Amino acid sequence: MTLPAETVARLAEALPAGVHFGTSSWTYPAWKDLIYSKEYPATGAVDRMLEEYARFPLFRTVGIDSSFYAPMTPKTLAAYAAVLPDGFRCVSKVWDRITVHTFSKARNKAQGGERNPDFLNAELFQEAILTPCLEHFAGHLGPFAFEFQQVPSGKKGLSPQDFADALDVFFGALPRGPQYSVEIRNAEFLVPAYFAVLREHNVAHLFNSWTRMPPIGAQLDLPGSITADFVVARALLRPGRQYAAAVESFAPYDRVQDENPELRSDLARLAETAVKLRIPAYILVNNRAEGSAPYTIAAVAGLLADRTA
After folding, report:
1. Residue 117 CB-density burial (10 A; 0-12 exposed, 13-18 middle, 19+ buried)
2. Which domain holds residue 147?
3. Which of 181, 183, 202, 260 is the most buried (most CB within 10 A)?
4. 50-53: long-range contacts at Cβ-Cβ below 8 A with a sequence spacing of 24 or more?
5. Contact 194, 187 (CB under 8 A)
6. Is the pTM of this model over 0.70?
7. pLDDT by residue (tens digit) across 111-168?
8. Which value, in Å, is the radius of gyration of the alpha carbons in the chain?
9. CATH code at 199?
10. Spatial CA neighbour of 197 closest among 168, 224, 162
């Protein structure tokens, strides 16, 4: 399957200047004839794929997901910068050493269940992530995405107020200028104190569609949920669906297999809201949302075109 070139060109031309659509990562060989003009191997072609990805008319950003597992090296940052066009800004996930509250056994068998001593370590973030990005990737640096996977709550974890207070200290220690966004997986953290802290530091609440989060539209309807002078969203999973089930059902991600009209409408409304506020929006779509992120983006772009015509 493919998207007709004339359709893509028409949708791209209709996109408001401040709306940046992109996908969560780009290393999907099955996108041949959809995004890519040639066969790419499963590994070893990251830079070449990124260069071609950035030429697709509907894509104005991309999610760098690999940086969740380890900071990008200066070599990697320079390689990515070399193939991206001027003004093409990326949403980079932050190393989970900064965002994991308690080590999981799946990621760290030796320390599973123990508290992470580097949780929200501002000095480590600046040294290992921010400084190299500013030195080697400044021209392509969009919002950082701090992904907080399910944070333990109750006596052994954090209350919503504890979490908000920890964010306040952390972002208060970071330099202003770079764009920061926070993605949470605890629905109970969506409280006024959380939004107030983000607003104080011009940090964006990252609207996300995920297994145990309310839909993006419900998050947008919460008072004060737009907390910065830019918007970030990630369409990851249909609420209620597990990641492993989506992978099993949707791979290799070459077509839509579970159309989600509510998600599409929510993303279009979020982009429309950003346009009305005259602030940029970075909207990322994962293949596991519907089966193929490029098709989902094309559908959302079509809805947005109708709403902003």
Report:
1. exposed
2. 5-308
3. 181
4. 50/26, 50/80, 50/83, 50/84, 51/83, 51/84, 53/23, 53/26
5. no
6. yes
7. 767 889 999 999 999 999 999 999 999 999 999 999 999 888 777 789 999 999 999 9
8. 19
9. 3.20.20.410
10. 168
